[in-house]
Amino acid sequence: MTMDTLIYGVGLILVVAALGGLSWIAFGELRVRAARRNRLQPATAGGGAPRSVAPAGALADQALAAVRRLGQQSAVRDPAKVSLLRSRLMQAGFHNREAAVIYLGARAAALMVAIVGVIIMLPFVMGPGKGPTGVLIALLLSAAAIFGPDQVLKMRRQAREQEYVDGFPDLLDLLVASVEAGLSLDAAVTRVTDELGRRYPNLTVHLKFLVLELRAGRARKDAWAAFADRLGIDDARALATMLRQAEEMGTSLGETLSVFANDMRAKRMLKAEEKALALSAKLTVPLVLFIFPCLLGALMLPAAARLMHVFPNH
Length: 314
Description:
Number of domains: 2
Structural class: mainly alpha
């Protein structure tokens, strides 16, 4: 009983300390936010009342500001990974400039919530007669806080990369058709962007960025290289390298794109044939585990019933 009381007391002290620390951080953040708002808010003319802010919107802004501050502190501690994280976030569809900071802040907030949850679960874990439920909940909280944000980002990135891979051959076919029809490469990209908007919306977003960069006067090879980096697939990098070499050597863009599109079409056919040939090997396990026992039972049960009817005494 003495050990249980000691454990409960330590757990209670840790919980109170954690809640007090979080309250202090929240109070400091609210104070800094209020001082910043008062400093940046212009003086109202004629003694007019300042504009009211909705409580829900103010609370959301405060939470976002706290997450952003945590992310900025994490970015300052490890600035080398910010650029890599920003590229990963762009490949996952987060194009905001502050996406990396907000992501780092969300990870830090998740870790803090997990720590508080584990501390709260300590009295339910320690002591005689306690089941494994508390330990499982603590492990789930820790795993969700550590691996959850990365897994969500990874799944979102993989889903978008699959869309990019599926839509890239269609992009090349439309580029070849537009260039052979007499359009320039920049005008062909604009035309293809309008055509692919419904089928591949995420790929169209990157194409719009490419069009804007080209219109802004950026070099074509640099714009296509940045487009390939945003997509993060090998086909886009190969296309950017091919266009750079074609521009440096002065070869025809129409013929180059046509050859590259034929290669992409052949690659798509090879992938389809590979999936078709792998189907028999993938069906082996379901056949052995599910279909073959059912078929064996359907064939053998009538014979077993007939034998039992013929030899009832045996």
